[in-house]
Amino acid sequence: MHRVLTIALAAALSSIAFAGVSRAESLGMNTAQGIEQTLRTFQGNNFNVQEVYNWHNFDDETSGPHSAPQRSGQAIRGIQASIDANRSLANRLNNEGVNIRNVVNAEQAADGSVTFYVR
With a threshold of 0.85, does the pTM exceed it? Predict the structure, then answer.
């Protein structure tokens, strides 16, 4: 009886753990191409902005979030161009005081929200 209960509990926990994965559009949603496509079509207001002060000095605790991976110059220009192409998103970011030329990264969460990283 104890073994059956243990198996049932393990099955329930694993199904809960994988429930959030189905909400993500795809595993490649934060690749350079994936995030650019998302930004070109993003219509929601569910975004936030995080400042990143210095990508190269990870020992400095005031350098912003360490979880935001650095993008190449080409990828940054692609993100900025994608925001420019989505006028409603560009206007919403501008209303929040975000200069699009300062956006150095963007990441989409599984719930569809987007975090913009600015310098």
Answer: no
